[in-house]
Amino acid sequence: MVSNPVHGLPFLPGTSFKDSTKTAFHRSQTLGYRNGYAIVRRPTVGIGGDRLQFNQLSQAELDELASKAPVLTYGQPKQAPPADFIPAHVAFDKKVLKFDAYFQEDVPMSTEEQYRIRQVNIYYYLEDDSMSVIEPVVENSGIPQGKLIKRQRLAKNDRGDHYHWKDLNRGINITIYGKTFHVVDCDQFTQVFLESQGIELNPPEKMALDPYTELRKQPLRKYVTPSDFDQLKQFLTFDKQVLRFYAIWDDTDSMYGECRTYIIHYYLMDDTVEIREVHERNDGRDPFPLLMNRQRMPKVLVENAKNFPQCVLEISDQEVLEWYTAKDFIVGKSLTMLGRTFFIYDCDPFTRRYYKEKFGITNLPRIDVSKQELPPVKQELPPYNGFGLVEDSAQNCFALIPKAPKKDVIKMLVNDNKVLRYLAVLESPIPEDKDRKFVFSYFLATDMISIFEPPVRNSGIIGGKYLGRTKVVKPYSTVDNPIYYGPSDFFIGAVIEVFGHRFIILDTDEYVLKYMESNAAQYSPEALASIQNHVRKREAPAPESESKQTEKDPGVQELEALIDTIQKQLKDHSCKDNIHEAFQIYDKEASGYVDRDMFFKICESLNVPVDDSLVKEVTCKRLLLPAFTFPNPVWIPLCGL
Predict the structure, then answer these.
(1) Rounded CA separation 264/243 (Å)
(2) Is domain 89-216 annotated with CATH 2.170.120.12?
(3) What phi, psi does 292 have (nearest 5°)?
């Protein structure tokens, strides 16, 4: 064997040696197989089997060198770079906490079990704090099982907080969507993870078992029917003899329950019972003739026969202490069969004769079980709540969608634009309220009242609308049956109480007297006489002293002169009637007053030549004089009407 002639020569930079005797130039394999799968492997030698000119380090050594911080020989040492951030979906990928739990479910419609225990697995996914509840599938359980709650974040309270792995432990109850789960144990990974996070785990508990499932695991009993079962004599004696009873089953206490009628047949030949349902025309039920097929009915079972599989095997005398017999079916008594309580209220004549001959019972009267109809409940309106009018509130009780109360259309058409105006003062112990005057407007079309307070300069009280159109209730009237003020309640000296404020009527306009005289039947003689006497006193000539005093009053004389000047300007104007209608339209409260801007707007729309300086002067004079000194409303003398 010839040795390599260049082996051992120094391999220095700039120098190279070529082996002239080398004949193998093959490359090492980088593909291998392990357990039948192709894997990549790192070559260990170079071409022709030569040694590779680099260090063969393992992956662990390479990772250590990559994470190792270099140490400087001189200068300040640099701080090591921070650790790389690893997101939760990477750090906790495929890491799931598993808890074993169970919950109790009531079984209301079963005679064999009152509740059942359902075992579940609660999974907590650390990557996104989501949870899921899965019930292991039990074969032939008859219950939909599998995924009870799909994977999602579950709320633990009403504030919107979600369950966290810190809230989970062994031996606790957690409520999810109204169901309470009791956690009994967890797997090894969950225990190690929670203990590593500083959570002290409770000791594990035993899983609760379902009593019905455990009962089914017990071995079946062997039932032997006795061979000495002979009823030939009873069959030959009572063949075709049947006792007939009429009974009802009252199930009105349960939801959607009703009282139904049945016929119970008792066959004397073999002591069997049959229950038939009585159908009526158009009762909405399927015409099944039999509720219970003909069979012997047990009355008292032995203690160990409560779990007897009745749906598979017939009950024999070994499991029954007492059977139902003919003496148990008595008119006027109740008996329970197959979980239903039947009340017997009548029987046929053959049954009455049989009980008289066999048991000596002669008194079997028919019991009236027809339910008497309850007397109709008188519908009464609820008490008035104080919002709006009583008529408006009562509409909420007549229809689901309230409608406006019906109005007297004829009365509204006859009394349209008919308003009774009165001057009143406020009865108040406050000195500032003694000089306040109010104009009451009674609308005959709707029986509503509005109150307007004429503004007085430098009085310290803002005038204007005091009360909008509304019906005013008389004092001492009941809330359910209110009595409203009418036209007959307004006369000179009358006291009108409006929502706790008392007003005294002092004066009226001429239209009120005309209306009262034309409708004298509505008013008392005293009220009519008070208005007539007041009007006569107002129209009577004033004494000389008062006339002289009036002549001496320069304010009144100046105001009369200004009104005469304006009336002369509007005397020959063609739209005299239109002015009156326009002011009535814009004076919605019928107070007799409009503001200054509205006054000029109306005059401008009708092309009425009104001097601004004259109107300002008239307004100033009018505000300095007391109310009702001149005809009311104010805009009537200004327009010359």
Answers:
(1) 8
(2) no
(3) -135, 130
